[in-house]
Amino acid sequence: VSGVPAYYFLWLSGVIFTIGAVGVLIRRNPLVIFMCIELMLNAVNLAFVAVGRYLNSMDGQVFAFLVITVAAAEVVVGVAIIVQVYRAGRNMDVDELDLMKS
Amino acid sequence: VVVAFAILAAWELVTAIGVMASRRPIYNALSLVANMLGLAVLFLLLNAQFLFAAQIIVYAGAVMVLFVFIIALLNPQMDITLSRPSVEWGYGLIFGVVFAGLILALLYNRDLTGIPGVFTPQVIDAFGNVQILGAVLYSRFLLPVEVTSVLLLVAAVGAVYLAARKIR
What we know:
The complex is a heterodimer.
Chain A: H1 6-26, H2 30-54, H3 59-87
Helix pairs in contact in A: 1-2, 2-3
Chain B: H1 2-21, H2 25-45, H3 49-74, H4 87-107, H5 121-127, H6 129-137, H7 142-164
Helix pairs in contact in B: 1-2, 2-3
């Protein structure tokens, strides 16, 4: 990557991560919160791959690959839980969900 | 390359803000698809051809199809209201500015200080990205790969269990 310093990629990654974090904080729909979490994971992947590229290492790509795998598993379970909550007739608002309160 | 990076960075920022701020969940999902495709091209820019393919297939393909499918299935009309523009928006924006400022200040013009590895672009060109990634993945990182496979199995079983079960 001639001409682009490494910290440009890390900046981009940090800004995307921040946008995802803000989305998690201000949104109330659990599906949208999930999407913002995916955004944060993607930002971290970008940082992994960029650092690995600039340090001539393959480890960044391996970790990004593992993160992709874990994110897929996480989405499957999370979406299953969201569907269950929806089928239970609850309001889809994370401020009002209290299913775990005993 | 700089121009390509600038275009891609702008694309990523616009679509990321779309994911955060769109009102309807389907627009959030489509913004996220666009974001992931842009990220895949960034991977290509970083010589990560295998991750480019994996990103498109796994994320933009499987995960986002799942999201769009769920949105179409549940049709969550009743909860499309963005949280009221209230105090939590203010806190969210303050947090975002502070957090982004800290990260950018931390990374400002800082060089990477790690010890460079052996996989220079010449080596990767000689053997191929996928070949080297596979060799590393199944030699040094064999244990994490196996643990991840168990995790995938657990997630699949858990999803089936959750889908089959009734909660009150």
